[in-house]
Amino acid sequence: MEGAFAGIDRDALRRAGRMVVSIEGMWCASCALAVERIIARTPGVSAASTSFAGGSALVRWDPALVDLDQLFARVEKLGYRIVPLVEAQEMEAQIDIQARAVWMRLAVAAFFGMWSMLGSVALYLDRGLAASPEGWWVALATCLAALPVVAWSGLAFYRAGWRTLRAGVPGMDALISTGVLASSLLSAWSLLRGSADVYADTATMLVTFLLCGRLIELHARRRNSVAVNALRQAVPETAARIGADGVPAQVRADQCAPGDLVLVQAGERIAVDGVIVEGESEIDGAIVNGESAPAPVRAGERVAAGCVNLSSRLVLRVEQAYGQRFIDRIGVRMLELLGTRSAAAMLAERFARWLVPAAVVLAAASFALAWAGTGDATQAALRALSVLVAACPCAVGLALPLAYAAATASAARQGILLRDPASLEALAGAREILFDKTGTLTEGTLEVGTVLGSALAAPAEVLQWAARAEADIAHPVARAIRAAAQASAGDGAPADGKTERHGRGAVWRGGDTAGTVVVGSAAFVAGQGIAPPPEGAREAATRVEVARNGAWIGAIVLRDRVRADAAAALAAFAQGQVQTRLVTGDSAEAALPVAAAVGMAPGQVHAHCSPEDKVDVVRQAGKPVVFVGDGVNDALALAAAGCGISVNGATPAAVATAGVVVASGGLHQVAVAWRHARRTVKVVRQNLAFSMVYNVIVLALASSGGVTPAAAAFAMLASSLTVSANAGRLLRLAAPGPA
Fold first, then answer.
1. Which runs of consecutive H residues, i.e. helices, occur in 58-171?
2. How far is C-alpha 373 from the chain's CA centre?
3. Distance (Å, rounded) from C-alpha 507 to C-alpha 501?
4. Can you tell me the distance from the alpha carbon of 380 to that of 548, in angstroms, rounded to the nearest whole number?
5. Helix count (H) and strand count (E) of the chain?
6. Model confidence pLDDT, tens digit, residues 109-142
7. Exposed, middle or buried: residue 689 (CB in 10 Å: 0-12, 13-18, 19+)?
8. How many Cα atoms within 13 Å fall on the side-chain side of residue 223?
9. Whole-prediction pTM value?
10. Burial tier of 637 (Cβ tally within 10 Å: 0-12, 13-18, 19+)
């Protein structure tokens, strides 16, 4: 534990019973599985979960039994390294370095593999050339062209394959390595015997396509680091810390310690988690709870980093250190939740894990039986190597990446970005889709719904007087009232006067003729000495009371505008037997009218949900489940769901976290993505089934001597072309209508 963990209290870490750390050196998902197996086998460890996509591991242990030094040593012996959780920027830099290395290896594999493939195709198609002396030179040139691919481009696969073998969880890397080395050895053997039967194309094809798959996985890793970074960027990097002399000075947010006082001016975003010690205002807490309406706050109440102070200056006492803020804890939880692998990929890995030892055992048995039956060691070796060539999982390796690439290209033409195969698969199999309210089912913009008048003023007058009191105030409620007043046909209120802005309302004084107008919450209006509205006029909704010259004259009820295509989109899911629910941080009073407008029953609504509450709802819904959201407060649920979908206009944090991004169009695009995902998964399953059946049949025939190495290689090429053609069907746009 020395080095990266120097200076950390080991006893305190051990007593914590859990940690989220970064794992250095992971090359692929198989590496993550190997690290997870090694950690889980360490005495005292109760649970371990690694994520290649997140580049991290979550470990839980019994403090009385675990030896952390032993745990770290086991991982390092396997060739990896446990380090403290790295910052998002550092993680992105590491992934970029790794991606550049993969691109370089892929460029070499593609260039030299192309020449190797040309020679192999010529030999396959012209058997006369293969039998001639010139054919041997063509075969030699083919193998020499493949040498950089086998010796350098595929090096990382061999290393990862060896590590997973040591951990007892051989996967696709071990199988690929076996196939590449077997085809290379068989090609060398053929050349030494004067034969032109070489299989360099097998090795180069495997390495090239697996490198493409690695780039897809690295893209998913970088997306996750960008998601965590986007979450941090939702919070200011600096804060106005008040010094001992009472003068505020701008400092970095990580320099604010618990107990410090911080000044937050009206209109600023809060940089710390703290308690209000001075001031009264309204805050936009959508980053925490998704509430569409501003919430009044006063001294003694807690606020979280990322919230926006809308009205008046506040002084906060810092409660949580940098790294322990609510937004920071969400970032750590996201790393724990992100990185789910697709069932198709895991099925391919399990097949590879079974095929590696089976192919080796079958090759050894074939050698022994052939030698015993013929007495010819050369023929016995050829049969054994034929088995290993037949085991090359080209079609298995291509089944998922090709279908995913075709589906991604097709979806992009419709304004839908597919981020990873796991999300696509979860979307295809979803039986339930959970929707956020504000900004997802609604447009996230307040509008005036109902204006209540009284005996003292008609509704149009109430709206105009309120607009005058809210003039020049940068506040969502004020903007909605002004917009409604401008669109109204009523008479305008006098233009002259002076507005006093308070924490929960405003007072406008327009002189002797116009008098005084008070606008704000019921508590604020009552605090100005004005009698509350009649009981019959009360309504449980986002509402602004309006009084003039000391008497209540009416109220304005505001609502969040529902997206025009929301009801039709949800109807499409109902037609496809997919259940929908509304999960929001807003109150039930605000959520129920929206649910009714889109065709949901009250029992399908979950209100007052914090980000953690949304995760609980996702987990209780079972799998696979889809969550559709748009805000920072949705990031955890987007990460926890089998598929997170961000809608058009979502915040950067939601876009970065989601596995599917609707870049253009309305909510109906979610239904389009769902239908497209179902088609894609159908093709993937067809490809996997075909490729696995091929491997089993050809492997059996090769072990019995019924398939020569050349025939095995040709059959492998044919199976790969079949898989490619089937995946190409996804390049056509998904047909409209229910799947």
1. 68-77, 88-125, 127-131, 133-148, 155-167
2. 57
3. 7
4. 102
5. 26, 26
6. 989 988 888 888 788 777 777 778 888 898 899 9
7. exposed
8. 26
9. 0.62
10. buried
